[in-house]
Each structure stands twice: as C-alpha cells, then as structure tokens.
Design a protein that fits this description.
The chain is of the alpha/beta class and about 425 residues long. The protein folds into 3 domains: about 5-30 and about 85-130 and about 255-310, FAD/NAD(P)-binding domain; about 150-250, FAD/NAD(P)-binding domain (3-Layer(bba) Sandwich), CATH 3.50.50.60; about 325-430, FAD/NAD-linked reductase, C-terminal dimerisation domain (Enolase-like, domain 1, 2-Layer Sandwich), CATH 3.30.390. About 30% of the residues lie in helices and about 25% in strands. The N and C termini lie far apart (about 45 Å). It binds flavin-adenine dinucleotide and nicotinamide-adenine-dinucleotide (NAD). It comes from Actinocorallia aurantiaca.
Length: about 425
C-alpha cells in the first residue's frame, strides 16, 4: 500500500471489486511518512532560512536564529505522529478490507499474511516499494545510524552529521540540516553528487554546498565506521567524526521474502519486470519503485492508473517513460526530464546539446540565482532536459510537455517565452544547440 497501491486498492474497491489490501507498515508507504512529504517540509523550512540570510545585499539586515522545533512539530502533525488511521479508513470506507501484516506470495493468486490465506479470483497487485539499502561497511551494523526513516523523526538538528551517499536523499537532507546549523559532511563514492543526472547538475550542487559550508568528499571508499557515542567514518587514510550518521546509499526490495519465486519470477533480481500494462505474470501486476522505472511517487501513481485500467478492462495508453520527470529539491533546484546526454549517447542517438547559464538570463541576473538550462536533442526531437535554478522543477515542466507531446525543436525555437521569467532561458539554450 505505497502511494500507487493505495490508489489501485481504492479505485478497484470503488469500482465494486472485492479488494483486500495487505500492509506491513503504514498505509500510503514511504512518501507521506518518511519520504517526499516530510523531507520537503524540512526543505521548505531550510529554504526560508536561506532566503532570510539573503536579505543583506538585497533588502536590509536580518538576524536568523534557526529552530528545529517548528519543523519537528509540523512533521508530527503532517504524519499524524506516524499514524495511518486516516488513510486506512479512507480505504475501508470504500469497501476494502485492510489486512495488517507482511504478505507473502504462496501460490498463483494467493497471498498469505501470518495464518490468513487470501485467494483472489482476478489477481494480485504488487506494490512493496523499497527500503533503505545498507552497504556492508565494516563496523556499521549495530551502530545507531540513521536512514531517512529516523532523520525525519529528529527532534532537533544534530550538531554534526555525516551522510553516506550523495544521491537524491543525501543532497536534499544534507542541505536541509546544514541550513539549520548542523555541520554536515557528505561522503559520495562516485566522482560527483547526483551521479545519475547531468554532470553540470552535480557540479553546481557541489559548488553551492561548498559555499554554504557543507564538506563534500566525492570518489571516496569508506573502509570503516566506528561508534563510541559519536560516529567516526574512515575513508582511505582520512576520517570524519560526527554526532549522527545518515546512510542514504540507495534502496532495495527483498523479492525472496515477498515470495515472487512462487509465480515464476526471479527472487534474486533487484526489480520486478513489467510490460507496458504493468503485468508481471499471469494475474500479477506490479507498480512503484519495485518495477525499476524510477523510484518516484509520480511513477507509482502513473503506473497505478495504468494497472487499474488494465484490471478493469478499460482502454488507455500504455506506459511511456520518455518524458519521465524528476526534481531534486535542493537550492538551486534541479529539474530533469527524459534522457541525460550520456544516456542518449548510450542509446546510439545522434546527440546535440544546448546550454545556457541562468545568470545570463534577465531573471537569473535580477534574482542573483544560480542555475542553467541544458537541452539534449536528437534530430528535431528534444529527448532530455535539465533545468537548474530557483524554480528548476517548475521550469522543467515546460520541457516535459515538449517531450511528452513530441513538439519539434524547430517549433520550440519559434515560441514566445514570457519576459523576464526563468523559463525564458530555454530560448537561449535552444539557440545554443550545435
Ligand atoms: C527521503 C525520501 C524522499 C523522497 N522524496 C521524493 C520526492 O520528493 N518525490 C518523489 O516523487 N519521490 C520521492 N521519494 C520516493 C518515494 O517515496 C517513492 O518512490 C514512493 O513512496 C513510491 O513507492 P512505492 O509505491 O513503490 O511504495 P512505498 O512507498 O515504498 O510503499 C510500499 C509499502 O509496502 C509495504 N510492504 C512492502 N512489502 C510488503 C509485504 N510483503 N507485505 C505487506 N506490506 C508490504 C511497506 O510497508 C510500504 O508501506 C522519496 C523517498 C525518500 C526515501
Ligand atoms: N526529490 C525526489 O524525487 C527524491 C528525493 C529523495 C529520494 N528519491 C528517490 O529515492 C531513491 C533513493 O535515494 P538515495 O539517495 O538513497 O539513492 P540514490 O541511488 O539516488 O543515491 C545513492 C548514492 O549513494 C552512493 N553510494 C552508494 N554506496 C555508497 C558507499 N558505500 N559509499 C559512498 N557512497 C555510496 C551512490 O553512488 C549514490 O550516489 C532515489 O533514487 C530517488 O528515486 C527521490
């Protein structure tokens, strides 16, 4: 019952099907309780602090004294103190049956929860999501390290924090805590932050982090973690010490524990492959992080809608991930859609790119905002874009529409872009296409 599962279960119950939903944790999954919503609330508060600190030089003087108290209180309220009663009732009020516990597939169209065996006529929808993947670092196991699940329950911002992993979770939480006064170190194994996105994105975030006092170490190989009331993380001949350690090194799903072997799927795989209708096997649909099409709530919900249509025998377009959007909610915010330049090259496309720094646009200059627009083009088709800046995620939406609707690049070039918006920089990036 992640975001997609909750949607599928509710919609099918509303359509009159007899639906049993199995949930081992909280109805709604990671996003509302430990992921998107709490992290974005932390980021919203941290961004307010950053804006206040920008007053000098623009509008006068400020004195900023961060207090985590309102953040912790807001998170408690937003998650109902990590209680899913409202979400559970939303489903049962639609006529669904909620079964609490861990579900295991025990046969075709059969799921067992403890002693209870559920047999479906129509089929089973799998939406097990992911949990934090913990790397096998010497000394880490058994220490009171945080993952995102503990970080969002912090009652105060720690004095110091080491983050292992500079991906999506790592960068968002690093900046949020740092802006509340936490001394933050990010240790990333790859050569840059946000390694799956365009290199320019990770480089920009790394530069801004350094300027804000976040210690970023990339290309590190962590050899040991020690804990004696404080954490020591060793990498090569260096080490860093902190009050808290947050591990954000990716996600995993235990498919063997879920019992997918009973329906002919590979239990040692990292994902459950699905077709364009979310079918994973006869009478089995899978949606969300586990399908490997992007660990995002909007993917879970998008796939949910397709699965519902397929189960109810309704028409509708098959899954299409060409215009897959994603946003890293750092400041500057990194919006991205479709392919990166490297991914397009890897696919054998004849790639051209266009790039412009946001500072050369009127709005970027007025705002004193850092960022850029990068476009990835193949022929006359836009296949990918990255928009970094104060509203990078919102800027990206225009390009997501262009990719989704296959708007030719030649047509985008002759469009009117409102002056002076951030998104007007898209026009400059289009002109730069080689
Ligand atoms: C810190 C953080 C920030 C994030 N921020 C964003 C963001 O800003 N935007 C965005 O789009 N995405 C974000 N994500 C990702 C997003 O949370 C997930 O992609 C989203 O929750 C969709 O996941 P899902 O549908 O696969 O299932 P999940 O949300 O992972 O839920 C799966 C549910 O299934 C339950 N479950 C698993 N196995 C079983 C079983 N066998 N029996 C019974 N129950 C079981 C689990 O308890 C869980 O409740 C973030 C994630 C994290 C960790
Ligand atoms: N804004 C958003 O939409 C948002 C925010 C947070 C998370 N998410 C989703 O959740 C997923 C999980 O986030 P994540 O940050 O855990 O995973 P990630 O895959 O984005 O990043 C993990 C990082 O940890 C690094 N790493 C792995 N092992 C390491 C080690 N031993 N030492 C040092 N570095 C190591 C990897 O190189 C990688 O850069 C994301 O992929 C994303 O899909 C989305």
């Amino acid at each position: 019952m992640g975001p997609g599962g909750e949607d599928v279960a509710g919609k099918l119950a509303e359509a009159g099907l007899e639906v049993a939903a199995v949930e081992a944790g909280l109805v709604g999954g990671e996003c509302p309780y430990y992921g998107c919503i709490p992290s974005k609330m932390m980021i919203r508060a941290a961004d307010v602090l950053a804006e206040a600190r920008r007053v000098p030089g623009l509008a006068g003087e400020t004195e900023v004294r961060p207090d985590w108290g309102p953040v912790a209180a807001r998170l408690k309220e937003a998650t109902d103190d990590w209680d899913d009663r409202v979400a559970a009732e939303r489903f049962t009020d639609k006529g669904g049956t909620l079964v609490r516990g861990f579900g295991k597939i025990t046969g075709p169209r059969e799921v067992t929860v403890g002693e209870r065996v559920l047999r479906a006529r129509r089929g089973v929808v799998l939406n097990p999501g992911t949990e934090p993947a913990i790397p096998p670092i010497d000394g880490l196991e058994g220490t009171p390290f945080w993952t995102n699940r503990q970080a969002v329950k912090a009652s105060e911002a720690p004095e110091s924090l080491v983050l292992i992993g500079g991906g999506a979770i790592g960068v968002e939480l690093a900046q949020a805590f740092s802006r509340f006064g936490t001394r933050v170190t990010v240790l990333e194994g790859r050569s840059r932050l946000l390694g799956v996105e365009e290199p320019e994105a990770g480089e920009l975030v790394g530069k801004v982090f350094e300027e804000e006092g976040i210690d970023v170490r990339t290309g590190v190989k962590i050899t040991r973690v020690g804990y004696d009331g404080r954490f020591t993380v060793e990498f090569g001949d260096r080490s860093v010490e902190a009050e808290r350690l947050l591990v954000a090194t990716g996600r995993r799903t235990d498919l063997a524990k879920l019992g997918v072997g009973r329906i002919g799927l590979d239990e040692s795989a990292r994902t459950i492959p699905v077709d364009e209708r979310m079918r994973a096997a006869d009478g089995v649909w899978a949606i969300g992080d586990v399908t490997g099409h992007g660990a995002f709530t909007h993917i879970s919900m998008y796939q949910a809608a397709i699965a519902v249509r397929d189960i109810l025998g309704q028409d509708g377009p098959p899954a299409d991930y060409r215009a897959l959007p994603r946003v890293s909610f750092t400041d500057p915010e990194i919006g991205a859609v479709g392919l990166t330049e490297a991914q397009a090259v890897e696919k054998g496309m004849d790639v051209r790119t266009g790039y412009t720094p946001l500072s050369s646009s009127t709005r970027g200059w007025i705002h004193k905002g850092e960022g850029f627009v990068k476009l990835v083009v193949s022929g006359d088709e836009l296949v990918g874009a990255t928009t970094a800046g104060p509203s990078g995620g919102e800027m990206m939406s225009a390009l997501a529409v262009a990719i989704h609707g296959r708007v030719p690049v030649s047509s985008l070039t002759h469009m009117i872009y409102a002056y002076p918006t951030f998104h007007r920089a898209i026009e400059d990036a289009l002109r730069d296409i080689g």
